[in-house]
């Protein structure tokens, strides 16, 4: 499953100034997801059958793998400051005038 991703990815992409908050949010989301899965396993398996339930989990994992492969940035050989600069560069909107002059 994708359980380890909530520990590994935030620890590699969050700079030190926000790492504690990022890890806390990641942990809460992980625990909420685990609660949802464990709370719905019996009702979903009876509604979908066990084969259908595991097919649903397979599809969710395939989506997660594709998401990580295409969306999550590679961190190998990069410092936390590099990751901070990367996320700042994609979070900064283009100035209005520059965007209008290109069209």
Residue fraction in strands: under 5%
Number of beta strands: 0
* Spans where pLDDT lies below 50 across 5 or more residues: none
**Largest sheet features:** none
Shape: elongated
Q: What number is the mean pLDDT?
A: 81
Number of helices: 4
Share of residues in helices: over 70%
User: What is the terminal-to-terminal distance?
Assistant: 45 Å
User: Rg, please?
Assistant: 19 Å
SSE blueprint and pairings:
Blueprint: H1 5-13, H2 19-70, H3 80-91, H4 96-102
Helix pairs in contact: 1-2
Primary descriptors:
single chain, 103 residues, mainly alpha, 4 helices
Kindly describe this structure:
- The protein is mostly helical and 103 residues long.
- 78% of the residues lie in helices and 0% in strands.
- It has helices at residues 5-13, 19-70, 80-91, 96-102.
- Helix 1 packs across helix 2 (19-70).
- The mean pLDDT is 81.
